[in-house]
């Protein structure tokens, strides 16, 4: 797909892609979940009732972090045993993407980093160390999550997934990282 706009395969409404690498989006008119292939769009379901949020972040919010401008283009709501939180997908001005995690009034912005080897959930041990870009991160927590809802543009599909594992890491200099081990539906 070479143009940033398309037509919803379900209702015919206009769909605009604000981030050129989006794989999944939702129709603002009929709430269909739409997955983008090489040159086509496919409806795979509908977005259910979306959980309300009191977050100041919303799709369309713009901002800047460390001299990099961003626009919020999507959201995933994760649930776990003690509650839920939002991860907001960002389109950065350089065409890459990032995430703002929004949990209990605390925010963390992250961008994708290349790893030589991505560890699986069975390799995630609290207290273990991981090295990225000459920085040592300590694994602080591992959380099994359920995908509760998703809206807007995302770099991966959520309609075909139910659970995942997220690992939170901290570095001594205040940097944070997350390892996202997505699981496909059974």
Biggest sheet overview: 9 strands, antiparallel
- What does the overall shape look like? globular
Secondary-structure class: mainly beta
Instruction: Return the string of H and E elements.
Output: EEEEEEEEEEEEEE
Report the portion of residues in β strands.
over 45%
As a whole number of angstroms, the C-alpha radius of gyration is: 17 Å
How much helix, percentage-wise, in residues?
Answer: under 10%
What features would you highlight for this structure?
single chain, 186 residues, mainly beta, nine-stranded antiparallel sheet, three-stranded antiparallel sheet, 53% strand, globular
Describe the structure.
The chain is mainly beta. The protein has strands at 5-7, 14-16, 24-26, 32-36, 41-46, 62-65, 68-80, 83-92, 97-103, 106-111, 129-132, 135-152, 163-171, 176-182. The strands form three sheets. Strands 6, 7, 8, 9, 10, 11, 12, 13 and 14 form a nine-stranded antiparallel β-sheet that branches. A three-stranded antiparallel β-sheet has the order 3-4-5, with no helix packed on it. A two-stranded antiparallel sheet has the order 1-2. The mean pLDDT is 82.
Give the arrangement of secondary structure elements.
Layout: E1 5-7, E2 14-16, E3 24-26, E4 32-36, E5 41-46, E6 62-65, E7 68-80, E8 83-92, E9 97-103, E10 106-111, E11 129-132, E12 135-152, E13 163-171, E14 176-182
Task: Give a short summary of the structure.
With 186 residues, the protein is mainly β.
